From TrEMBL:
This is Uncharacterized protein. Keywords: Membrane, TPR repeat, Transmembrane, Transmembrane helix. It comes from Syntrophaceticus schinkii. SMART domains: TPR. It comes from the Bacteria. The chain crosses the membrane at residues 14-36. Pfam families: TPR_6 (PF13174). TPR repeats lie at residues 90-123. The keyword DNA repair does not apply.
Length: 217
């Protein structure tokens, strides 16, 4: 898995996994509800084909997501240009990538994120959508294709300059590139955003303080 998850300093690495967690919890956790009414009401894991029982919440969740992946493969074969199918399939791959990261299965995580990126690109060919572009940027970022990720975020911010999520993701991206000045400016945009709640503002301010220390070292 040459070149994947290149060695980073501890602070940048933590920022990356915070980002992955934010995307997974904030966007992917609601993916099944998103399909209701879009022709995928039958989309659920088939417990009868789960095979050998496994221990642990993570292992069970991987089994569930793998079952969803198989169902999406079938749906996509019949509806290759369906936006709901493409988006749902991409989100399942993102979730699998996150779960495989937690299990230290880097090869499988990489493959899942790569499939997600391809599916997001196809979805965006059907309809330009800022939310899907944000998710595509996160897939690029975790694959460490920083230029592609930054390009997608810039497209979002050109259309919606106050997009809080794009600014937060841009800040994390610039941290991982060790562009401390750029990251500070991005976190300042987060902390001053009227869309940010108090916890988000405090999180951004704490990152600014850490980055100021990082610059002086």
């Amino acid at each position: 898995m040459a070149g994947f998850f290149r060695k980073q300093n501890a602070f940048a690495r933590v920022a990356l996994y915070v980002l992955v967690g934010m995307i997974a919890l904030g966007l992917l956790g609601t993916s099944l509800a998103w399909y209701v009414g879009s022709g995928a009401e039958q989309l659920k894991p088939d417990s009868s084909s789960s095979g050998e029982e496994t221990n642990g919440i993570n292992a069970t969740e991987i089994e569930n997501q793998e079952a969803l992946r198989k169902q999406f493969e079938g749906l996509l074969a019949g509806k290759p240009d369906d936006l709901a199918v493409l988006t749902g399939y991409a989100r399942v791959e993102m979730k699998l990538g996150e779960l495989y990261l937690q299990e230290n299965k880097g090869d499988q995580a990489q493959e899942a994120f790569q499939r997600a990126a391809e599916l997001y690109r196809k979805a965006l060919e059907q309809q330009d959508d800022l939310q899907l572009r944000l998710e595509l940027a996160s897939a690029y970022q975790v694959l460490q294709d920083d230029d592609q990720a930054q390009g997608e975020l810039q497209k979002i911010l050109q259309e919606e300059p106050d997009n809080l999520y794009a600014w937060a993701q841009m800040a994390s991206l610039l941290e991982n590139k060790e562009d401390w000045d750029g990251a500070i400016k991005a976190w300042e945009s987060v902390s001053s955003s009227p869309q940010a709640d108090q916890m988000t503002k405090e999180f951004a301010k704490s990152h600014i303080e850490e980055l100021e220390k990082q610059k002086s070292e």
